[in-house]
Amino acid sequence: MPLPQPIIDAARPLRQLARAVWLLPLLILGACSSQPPAPSMPSPAASERMQPMAWQALPGWRDDHVIAAWSAFLASCPQLAKKPRWTSVCDDAEHIDPLDESAITRFFEMRFQPYRLTNDDGSTTGTITGYYEPILHGARERHGPYQTPLYRFPNAWQAAPQRVRAAQRTLLESGALRGQELVWVDNPVEAAFLQIQGSGRVRLDDGGTMRVAFAGSNNQPFRSFNRALIDRGEIDVSQATLPGVKAWAKRHPERVEEMLTVNPRMVFFRELDSDHTDTQGPIGALGVPLTAERSLAVDPSRIPLGAPIFLSTTQPLSKEPLRRLMVAQDTGSAIKGSVRADFYWGHGEAAGERAARMKQDGRLWVLMPK
Predict the structure, then answer these.
(1) C-alpha distances out from residue 52 to 33, 89, 285, Å
(2) d(C-alpha 275, C-alpha 224), whole Å
């Protein structure tokens, strides 16, 4: 995407010279080695919860393999560059060797200032959860095992007031959405987990793959059927995963519908076009594909979408450190506050297992252009 032309004035030659002098060390380092909304800035109140820090204060900063985060950051730049503060940073990033870890690290250290994020109460620790992209099996037409629909967002609803759209899930599933079926899948529990994640892949019976993404909801609050099963003593915390709930459903097929209706929220989906390849992650709120283990969902009122974020937490159900450079590329209805994030693990069952088990304490530093 072409960047906007800078305003020509008498100071332009001096700015260009200064920028060229700054960029020279990075170019030398590199040569020596083998539809979304534009991102917003944090509100003034959010800025008060950002404390400037030295790079040495970021635990494990120099131990991270920042090459893995570089492509995620570059993917954010077409959106970031719409904001003047980010334009020159993204332009200069194009000149960095994407395989030169030293040059990438130096780029961040020279062009960015880390800010430690704090909560409203002044604390610096928050909750880091995980999410993933599910893989389901389905068909474009209803037949055989494919009896559970995923629905399109009805056109008539998109311009309707929220109160009109705020219908209960049970009412919608009683026939109000007939004709809006996007695809039929073979497992209602997997469909319910897909609604929680908001995007996924459906392997079709004809051999193809459909990528589906969040298109809207019925504006009802989310209530966890996992938590309901735990509270009733049906499963324990370690079984509150997709395999665990599917195993419960297999034992109690007559109670599956009752279990799922605990959650009144319904999510609608859209099919991604063929330009979105099978190797790319789902499209996040920033409008770019997510990168496994490098993309975060954040509260955009506290952290600008597209910004690099340094994360210090631990692996799911573990004390093993998980410290790495991430990029804020997504949002979530449950992600509220400064020190709060959702870690994107990737797609498939292994990613789903890690995501389901992740609820760790963590700290965040947002990197802002100097």
Answers:
(1) 32, 19, 27
(2) 34
Give the residue-averaged pLDDT of 344-361. Answer: 91
User: Is the whole model's pTM more than 0.90, yes or no?
Assistant: no
Is residue 157 predicted with pLDDT exceeding 70?
yes
Q: Determine the straight-line distance between the first and last CA of the chain, rounded to whole angstroms.
A: 24
> How would you list the strands of the sheet with 199-204, edge to edge?
148-151, 181-185, 135-139, 199-204, 209-217, 267-271
Helical residues (DSSP H) of 295-370, grouped into ranges: 349-357
> In this predicted structure, what is the pLDDT of residue 37?
43
Strand, coil or helix: 23: helix
Instruction: Give the range among 28-37, 142-151, 228-237 with minimum mean pLDDT.
Output: 28-37
Beta bridge partners of 136: 202
Instruction: Look at residues 268, 252, 264, 194 and name the one whose alpha carbon lies nearest to residue 224.
Output: 264
CA dihedral 7, 13, 14, 16 (to 10 degrees): 80
Query: What SS3 state is found at 362?
Result: strand
Our CA angle for 109, 113, 115, nearest 5°, is 130
CA 347 to chain centre: 12
Q: 327: number of CA atoms within 13 Å, CB side?
A: 28
- The partner residues of 212 in beta bridges, in order of sequence, read 200, 271
Backbone φ and ψ for 293, nearest 5 degrees, come out as 65, 15
Provide CB contacts within 8 A for 236, sequence distance 6+: 230
Query: What is the rounded distance in angstroms from the CA atom of residue 142 to the CA atom of residue 351?
Result: 29
Take residue 193 and report the two structure tokens written for it: 């987990």
Amino acid at 225: F
Contact indicator for 326, 308 with CB cutoff of 8 Å: yes
Amino acid at 179: G
Return d(Cα 86, Cα 279) in angstroms, integer.
28
